[in-house]
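Subject: sequence -> structure tokens, single chain

Hey, anyone have a minute? Need the predicted structure for the following. Not urgent.
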Amino acid sequence: MPPALPSLPPSELSVPITGMTCASCVNRIERFLNKADGVAEATVNLATERATVRYDAARIDRSGIIAAIEAAGYDVPVEAAGEDAKRDKALGLLWSALAATGIGLAMMAVMFWPGGVPWPMERLNVWLLVPATIVQFVFGRTFLLTAARGLRHGSLTMDTLVAVGTLAAYGYSLVITLLPEAMMGAGLPPETYFDSAAVIIGLVLFGRWLEARARGQASGAIAALRRLQPAMARLLRDGVERDVPLAEVRVGDLLRVRPGDRVPLDGSVVDGASSVDESMLTGESLPVAKRDGDPVTGATMNGRGSFMMRVDRTGDDTTLGQIMAMVAAAQGSRAPIQRLADRVTGWFVPAVMVVALLTFGAWLLLGPEPRLPLALGAAIAVLIIACPCAMGLATPTAIMVASGRGAENGILPRDGAALETAARVDTVVLDKTGTITEGRPSVTSVHPAAGIAADDLLRLAAAVEAGSEHPLAEAIVRHAPTPVSPVAEFEAIGGRGVRGTLAGAVIIAGSERYLREQGIDPSPLGAAAAAAAAEGRGTVFVGRDAQLIGLLTIADAPKRGAAEAIAQLRDARLEVWMLTGDRRDTAIAIGARVGIGPDRILAEVMPDAKADAIGRLQADGATVAMVGDGINDAPALALADLGIAIGTGADVAVEASDVTLVGDDLRSVPAAIRLARATLRTIRQNLGWAFGYNILLIPVAAGVLYPVFGIRLNPALAAGAMALSSVSVVANSLRLRTTRITPTTNDERSPMATQVKDPVCGMDVDLEAARAKGLVAEHDGTEYGFCGKGCLLEFRDDPGRFFRPDYVPSM
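Reply:
Had a minute. Here:
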């Protein structure tokens, strides 16, 4: 079946917001939303320009949430801007930036003409007034309008700083231009700041274009996922096949999937056969054979065969739709580490305004002549260089990129907090069945008691186990030689066994302890059970009417790559534990095969006690990640600091987790830890740069270096530095796209698991992997299976050798 993925809470709303420019905007909107009656929690993401609100639907609705955002001074568009609209907006930013910067640089070139300005400054200022006015009120109108709206609502933002700084430069220059005699009479030089104001506006716009472009790259994961789904499907209706848009397909429709097509939607095969590449979900490159009744998942790639499928899920209900919803939710979330930046940005812009006023006053009182223009230049530099944008982008951009990078590799964190917690984990607890092992056990030996036929033992055991969902029960039922007869009065005791009545006899199957509790002595088969356990095989004792009738041994092989995954976790300085309800000697044998020592194995743990085991580790000071896939793992997953669910497992386990692994490759666990650590490291670097930038450069802009070194910061250079600070934070986050997190392919294979090539099609064949995926079947003593391209193979004797029925290789 397709992976079970968690759904978003029902009382949750995500809305786009326009008009945000910095972290101060984020804080203001959050403050207004969180004060609204009925809102439980609101987070605003500057990078995605969206607000995510959890609320009580009985007390507030969408219109009330939008009203709170508008009361803060920001707008909610009817619908989020599409990719085309975003590109148009970015292009407009670029052209405005180039025009404003070009005009400003041209004015600078005239002002610094070699040999001096060839015209009187008074006349030159009049000529410069026209282009300066166009830049200030046309290209720079976005800063002025946003600042004015913020003032109406009592808020100060980054646009306020830019607007005040450039208006001060423009206003001073305007007075110099219109009243030259009066200004020169007051001892002020005729030089103006028209060029600086224009360049500031151009560079800030250019920085926002770079920022928008980088943010588009950071949020490209959802667009990439969406591109995996085909736009059209081949619909069969009324006996006629035709291509229709995917939006017209309904649940229950029949679709034809042709060779080389992507599967349009989730469903099941009803006719035909093929092999499907599901690597976009599982990371496993070996195509999976599909026949009648097998599930198929939308966006996976069909091989050379053709089949008809019935649609089971459409739209957001598909696996791909759920993955995109999870990625969007994670990208819109906030990590706890952002709280420090939030506290700082709450008072940052007002503090900068105060610093700018103090700078102006200090230069005006203590500075050299001409004091007024020097004081004005220093104050403008302080206003422009301060950059809360970088602090607001430090965390969300890193989470956006990390969430997309994880989605590409089948790792889906629920939110930013999950990524941060994963980076701090020091202990990993792995459930055994279905997590470390394949979770598809098979009966390996049958030990009937004296006077009992082996087939009768299997028949009775299968009859009572048919009502159980345990993997061992499934293996017994699958191995039964005849159809199973239902039992009456069925009862399952978690972690112990099952019982029921068949033809008047009480049939009991379960652990050695369970049989003893039922008054049955299992010791006659104790030696066989001990020998099986020593080899890592599970045991199921069977009794009838208080008499022992036999023992079944069941093997569940470790997953391919399990040993390598555990080695990678230990290399990452993590303590690794195994948690299982199996006998201790069985668990120790499995642990030895994957690299977990006896001192790190918690065995014979009942399902209701798994959470207690996690709690004991936490009480010892460990930060615990629990990895599981079963219903009985859900309490432990919920209690652990970080719950990691194998996506092919039970829905409730996935719902209880913080991270979902879409595939069942255990190597995704260390990959998730690597991704989380890289993300937290990047966030710390971003915050360090954002804080360090302001701590160092605001004093420089204020002029602290002037008394000793004679260095002043030109306002235009301050604008360039401010723009680059935001871009540098986003660019640093984008480095996560190249972080190596994918599992390696150097599996620790058993001596009998050899990978070879099909001599005709050249596809790699791994018998162990083929068996695990159900691609190998036995007939008349000979095993048959399929290579990755669906070619029929005949396996003989040595698992490292195989034959095509129509081709005999020379080996």
